[in-house]
UniProtKB/TrEMBL annotation:
Protein name: Pyrroloquinoline quinone-dependent pyranose dehydrogenase beta-propeller domain-containing protein
Native species: Pleurotus ostreatus (Oyster mushroom)
Acetylation as UniProt keyword: no
InterPro entries per UniProt: 6-blade_b-propeller_TolB-like, Beta-prop_PDH
Record domain Pyrroloquinoline quinone-dependent pyranose dehydrogenase beta-propeller: where: 30-437
Stretch forming the signal peptide: 1-16
Keywords: Signal
Amino acid sequence: MLSALVLVALAALCAATFQPIGAPFLSPVTTAPGFAAQVIFSNLTAPRGIAFDDQDNLLVVERGLGVTAFTKTTQGGASGWERTVVISDPGFTHAIEVDGSSLFVSTASEVRLYKYDSATKTVSGSTVVVNGLPADGELTTHALLLYKPKTSATRSATVLFVGSGPLTNIDPTARDPASGRSQVRGFKLSTPGSALPQTWLSGELIAYGIRNPAGFAIPAVQLSAADARPGLFILENGASIDDVPGFTPKFVNDNPADELELVAGTGALGRAYGFPDCTTLWNPTADPVGNPQYVGLPQGAQFSLNLDPLRNDAWCGQQANNVPPSLSFQAHSVPLDIKFYEPGAVSSVTSFPTTYANDAFVSFRGSFNRDPPTGYGVVHVPFPITSPTQASPFIVQAADLSTCPGTCIRPVGLSFSKDGRLYVSSDSSRELFVVQRGPTFTVAPPGPTLTIPFPTPEAS
Ligand SMILES: *[C@@H]1O[C@H](CO)[C@@H](O)[C@H](O)[C@H]1NC(C)=O
C-alpha cells in the first residue's frame, strides 16, 4: 500500500503537465497602450524567481516545491507550455540564476550550485557555495545575481552577489556590517570546488543598511562617460514604520518610499544606505496636520526615524552615513525584481521596442497595508534615470486594485526571453505570464540624451 502511494507520488513528480495557451488570468489585468499580457501557466506552487536556461526553458523556483522547467511545445495541435520538475526541494526560498550547466539557488541559510543539463532538464549533484546566511530573520529570501563581465569573460571575473534581510522589520543590529543583516556581499567564483563553501561573512561587503535587498541588476551599458565600470542596482523594500513613534497612520499610509539603490563609482563598495535609521520621503503632504514637519520637503528627501537621537535628520542627510537612493518608488510597492531590457538575437513583432533598450523593468508585488492598495504590477523605469523622483509607469497591473490582494497578480520574478518578451511570475495567484508588444504599439519620439546622475562618493 505504502509503496503504491510512493509510486503514485513519484509518477506525479516526474510527469510533465501541459497547458495550452489561452487560460484566463485569475483576476483581469490591464497593460500599457500597445502591450498585451497572456497567461502561460496556472496553478503553480508560489512561483518566485525565474530564469531562462540556454535552451530557452524557463526555470522557476516554486516555493515549497522546488525548481520546475517550462518549455514551449505543442500537444494535440495546440501550442502551449509543458511543466516538469527539475529539483524537488521545499527549502528553496526565492532566487535562481543559471549559466550553462551552473544552476544557483538559495535556501534560508545557504547558496547551492547544481550541475544542470538543459537538454534533459535534470540536475546531477550539488555543492554548497555560500553557507552561514542569517536564516532566522523575518525575510529569509536571499536574492542572487551572477555577474560575468561581457568584456573579459574569464571565470576569475565572475562574481555572485548575494543579499540578506533584517532580523526584524526595523533591525538595529543591521547598523553593524558584521551582523550579516540587510546587506549585499560579493563572492568571487574563480576557483570553483577548491575552497567551498565560502562563509557569508567572508564575502566582500558591497553595501549595507539596505533593509531587504530583494533584487539586483547590472546594466549592460556603462553608467557615465567618466566611469568605465558598471554599477550594481539594488531594490530595497522600505520598512513598515507603522509602529515607530512620531508618525501618524495617514503619514505611514504613503511613506516611506521603496528605493532603487546604486553602488557605483570610486570608493563605492561597503557604504551604508541608511537602514534602520534613515529612510526616504514619498509623500510630503500625506498628513499635513499630524506630520507637518515634512510638508516643505521634496519627495525623495532623506529623513530620520529618530531611533537614536544622534542619528537625526541632519545625520541622515550626510552621504557618509546614508547614501540616498538613485530612484524612489511609491510607498508599499514592494519591488522584488529588476531586469534591464537588452534586445536579443531574435526580434519579432512581439518583441519589446528597441526604444526601450537598456531601460529597466521592476516587479511590484504590492502591499496589503495601504489603502487604497498599490503595486500589483510591473513598472517601466526609463534609463538613464534623470531624476531620483522620475515616474515609473506600469506596463501591466491588476485591473481593479480595490479587489487586491484577492486573486490579483502579485509579480515577483522577471526574465526577458531571447525574443524580447518579458516573463513574469506571480506567487499568490500561482501564475506565470508574459508581457509582449501588441499590434497597436507606436514608437514614441526619442527623448533628449542625458547622463545618469549617481551619488558622488565622498572621500573616506
Ligand atoms: C487550476 O486549478 C483549478 C482548481 O483545481 C481548476 O479549476 C482550473 O481549471 C485550473 N486551471 C488550469 C488552467 O488548469
